[in-house]
Amino acid sequence: MDNADFIETYDGALDAQTCRDLIARFNASGQAVRGATGGGVDTRLKDSWDICISDHREWQEVENHFNTAMLRGVMAYVRKYAYAVLAPMTLRMPDPKTGELVLLDPAAVAALPDHLLQGLVTKCFRPGAINLQKYHADQGGYPYWHCELYPKADNGETLHRVLLWSVYLNDGFAEGETEFHYQNRKIVPRTGSLLIAPAGFTHTHRGNMPKGGDKYIATSWVLFQRAERLYANAATSSTAR
Predict the structure, then answer these.
(1) Which residue in 178, 160, 158, 159 sits closest to 168, CA to CA?
(2) Are 203 and 57 in contact (CB under 8 A)?
(3) 51 in the Ramachandran plot: left (φ > 0), alpha (ψ -120 to 50) or beta?
(4) Which of 15, 52, 99, 164 has the most CB atoms around it within 10 Å of its CB?
(5) Can you say how many angstroms the Cα of residue 184 is from the centroid of all Cα atoms in its chain?
(6) Of all helices (H) and strands (E), which one includes residue 62?
(7) Strands across the sheet containing 185-187
(8) Tell me: the pLDDT tens digits for 159-183?
(9) Helix (H, G, I), strand (E, B), or coil: what is residue 22?
C-alpha cells in the first residue's frame, strides 16, 4: 500500500455485447454534440463528440446500468482505500453485540458485508452526470492535462467530486490511453473495463489520441452527498447505516 497510486481498473464491468450495442446506439442517435471542458468547447483542448445521457430520459435505463457497474467498482475501491470515505467523515456503526456506536476503521470497512458497505457508500456518495464520448481515429483526444475538481461560477457540483470513473466501450485501436501525469502511468483501454481514480490535481491526466480506430467511453464522477443530506439529522449525521 505504501506505493499505491490510487488508480484502479476492473475488467468486465460491462459485457462486450452491451458495449457494442451502446456504440451502435450512440452512432444512430443523432444526439452527439461537441465535447466541452469546464471552460466550454475548445477542440484544441478536447476533440470529442459527446452525449450527456443524464440529460435524456430515453437513456435512463442505460444510465442506471452504468451506475450499477460504477457502484460495484466503488465498493471494491473503498474496501481497498477505506480512507476515501473515512478521512473526510467520521463514520460510526452499531456494534452487533452491544448496539453501541463505534468508529469505523479501515479493517472494519474491508470486512463489511456487501449490503452494509453498499449502504455506507450510498450514504456518503452520489453519482454524477454521465457522458458517452466518441474520439475519432487519428484526430480526437483530450490532450490537455487536467483534473476533475475545480470551481465553476454557475455550478458548485464540480467541487463535490471525489473520484473520476470511465468505462471503455471498445479497444482494437492503438494508443488512446488515459495517461496520468504524476503517476507516470498509461491505462490501456479494454472493452468493458472500469477505471476509477481520485478527482483532484494529484491525478492530473489526459486522454491520448486513438490511432487506427475510433474510441468510445462512458465517463463521470463520484460526488459527496450534499451536506444538507449528510447532516440532515445532527444526532446521526456521522453514523453509517
Answers:
(1) 178
(2) no
(3) beta
(4) 164
(5) 20
(6) helix 60-80
(7) 142-146, 205-207, 178-180, 185-187
(8) 999 999 999 999 999 999 999 999 9
(9) helix
